[in-house]
Amino acid sequence: MAAEDERGARLTVGAPDLLTLHESIAGMFATQGDWQRAYQHLRSALDIARAGSLRDTLTSSYNRRYLDQRLPSLPSGRGLALALIDLDRFKHVNDTYGHLLGDRVLCRVADLLQEDLPADGFCARYGGEEFVLVLPGLDAAGAIRLADATRVRVARHPWSELQPGLRVTISVGLAYASADTEAAQRQLLRADNLLYAAKRAGRNRVAYHDRETARVITHSE
């Protein structure tokens, strides 16, 4: 547990520290008149700053800006699944245990969501307690299996080790499209509608379209 928290700390503070280091070294070389080495460190600082602008500052997952940039540039010729994920009753977690613990829950969930993603797949924090999994290269059945395995992974995580009595689950709206058949933003809107279907069905579920009908995977816990 401590190792996981330490890893999260390295992700969130490591890049800004490195940015400051490169800026300081660039300033030192500039005062010495070594403009080439100063320029090299300024370029490194710029690269770090650019990468940091695409990461969520709390969870270190990608952010909405990265999602908006990547969706149009995903390779064509393959299927694409988008899973919109919401933490169930997260306001209750904040109200009961406090926002500091709520932040730790968000970080832990982000880590769990990023396990076992396909090649070129990624997780982005969409806003608040919502995340998006971008899953290219899977067929519809594979996307459903992955989404439900993710839901189960979160539900079965030992949350009581973080706080006695704590339980966390997620609801998932999964929208799948074969290659080049639907704009990604419209597909994301479908995932949002399916997420509400999962919530209405009782939460801790994955909702997806089967032909013309929305079907819901019920949880097994």
TrEMBL record:
Origin superkingdom: Bacteria
Pfam families: GGDEF
One of the record's GO molecular function terms: diguanylate cyclase activity
GO annotation, biological process: cell adhesion involved in single-species biofilm formation; negative regulation of bacterial-type flagellum-dependent cell motility
Residue ranges of every copy of the GGDEF domain listed in the record: 78-211
InterPro entries named in the record: Diguanylate_Cyclase, GGDEF_dom, Nucleotide_cyclase, Rev_trsase/Diguanyl_cyclase
Cross-referenced CDD domains: GGDEF (cd01949)
A GO cellular-component term linked to this record: plasma membrane
UniProt xrefs under PROSITE patterns: GGDEF
NCBIfam families: GGDEF
PANTHER family membership: DIGUANYLATE CYCLASE DGCM-RELATED, REGULATORY COMPONENTS OF SENSORY TRANSDUCTION SYSTEM
Protein name: Diguanylate cyclase (GGDEF) domain-containing protein
Native organism: Amycolatopsis saalfeldensis
Higher taxonomy: Bacteria, Bacillati, Actinomycetota, Actinomycetes, Pseudonocardiales
